[in-house]
Amino acid sequence: MRFPSAGALALALAATCAVAAPDAVRKEIADRVQAQLPQGASVDEVAPDADALVAAGQKLWIAKFKDKASLAGCFPNGGRRIVAGYPQYDARLKRVVTLEMAINQCRKAHGEALYEPTDPATMGAVLAYVRSLSNNMKMAVRVPAAAEPRFEQGRRMYFTRMGQRNFACASCHLQDAGKNFDGVALSAAVGQATHWPEIRAGVPVTLQARIRECLELMGAAPFAAGSDELNDVEYFLSYLSNGLPLRANVQRTKAE
Amino acid sequence: MSARATVLGALAIAAALPAWAQRPASALELFVQRDKGYCIACHQLPAGSGPASTSDLGPRLEGARMRALGKAAIRAVIADPTVANPSTVMPPFGRHRILDAKEIDRLVEFLDALP
């Protein structure tokens, strides 16, 4: 009778039990996507109606609060070239901070009403503008050691089957990435976080709003936008896109 | 038309609505509706059997292949495909009560009769 070697056992245990380092997780998923879809899964196009939206966002970005501060004043360099590093891990809060959350932290600190995280007229417009200031920067999200549990939680959420339809995000966007679902090519996990908000008929749709649409389709009650659950998923997805260029204000015509 | 006649007409329509609403969905409706099977999102049908699609998450549903599988196997796969293949993306339509037993039966007959 032959027994599996200790090395094989260790590998099997590592695959099932251990929490892999974020870098190893990203490499494994990126290699898998590259093997499945060497040509990529999607084509982004700059939205033809993004200019008005960006202008509306700029107005909100530079508008003075009651205390004469502004969103622009809350971020380094007025918000130029900062977005590729979001989401970030806040060691003091022990939470993932998305760009939307940082914007609302600024408003709260200055006594202003918070934006709804997926509201197109406020948060969507502001995101469209501030992301345009980082267009084509390479995604560079950091996961320090203290943040690895949040990254792992996001990874776990992405791979967990949910809802009446029993899909995981990874069912469609890793296992079947590039295939046609109801006539639309499914986007791959790597690259999903680069291009938000996506513009649909002039209306900005944030990444978390899009994830909520997926959860509805899965027959699951969607987590709230801005919840720790969706923030962790966004953190995981954004890290997977590291090294890819950030695309501001695109419409996606070939993939979802 | 008098106001009374309008009211009577509206009442007649309202009375007829529940009967219409309770009409069981046809197999093809079960196949395409988002809140039912929504099978069309993942599978293609033979030409002329339903809406054309480019979906390819699941295999093309050819009649000969369906009949080779047999009705019992088709019914089992629709009810819970994870029994035969734990990693499948296909939803467990019976186990998760997306479709009831009669609806699954109608789909089985529809698939078995495909060209």
* CATH topology (level 3) name of chain B: Cytochrome Bc1 Complex, Chain D, domain 2
β-sheet strand percentage of chain A: 5-15%
- Count the helices of chain B. How many? 5
Number of domains of chain A: 1
| CATH architecture assignment of chain B | Orthogonal Bundle
Give a short account of the largest sheet of chain B: none
Distance between the termini of chain B: 51 Å
Uncertain parts of chain B: none
Going by CATH, the architecture of chain A would be Orthogonal Bundle
- Helix coverage percent of chain B: 40-55%
Chain oligomer state? heterodimer
Contiguous low-pLDDT stretches of chain A (5 residues minimum) are 1-17
CATH class of chain A: Mainly Alpha
Question: Widest sheet of chain A: strand order?
Answer: 1-8
What is the CATH homology-level superfamily of chain A?
Cytochrome c-like domain
What is the helix content of chain A?
Answer: 40-55%
Distance between the termini of chain A: 50 Å
Whole-number count of domains of chain B = 1
Number of helices of chain A: 10
Account of the 3D structure:
The complex is a heterodimer of chains A (256) and B (115). Chain A has 256 residues and is mostly helical. Chain A has a single domain, classed as Orthogonal Bundle (Cytochrome Bc1 Complex, Chain D, domain 2), CATH 1.10.760.10. In chain A, 43% of the residues lie in helices and 9% in strands. Chain A has helices at 6-16, 22-36, 50-62, 71-74, 99-109, 120-132, 148-159, 169-175, 207-217, 228-240, and strands spanning 44-46, 88-90, 95-97, 180-181, 184-185, 198-200, 203-205, 250-252. In chain A, the strands form 4 sheets. Chain A has a two-stranded antiparallel sheet with strand order 1-8. Chain A has a two-stranded antiparallel ribbon with strand order 2-3. Chain A has a two-stranded antiparallel sheet with strand order 4-5. By secondary structure, chain B is mainly alpha-helical. Chain B has one domain: Cytochrome Bc1 Complex, Chain D, domain 2 (Orthogonal Bundle), CATH 1.10.760. Chain B has helices spanning 3-21, 27-32, 63-69, 71-79, 101-112. Classes of the chains: A mainly alpha (256), B mainly alpha (115). The interface between A and B is medium-sized, with 14 and 17 residues.
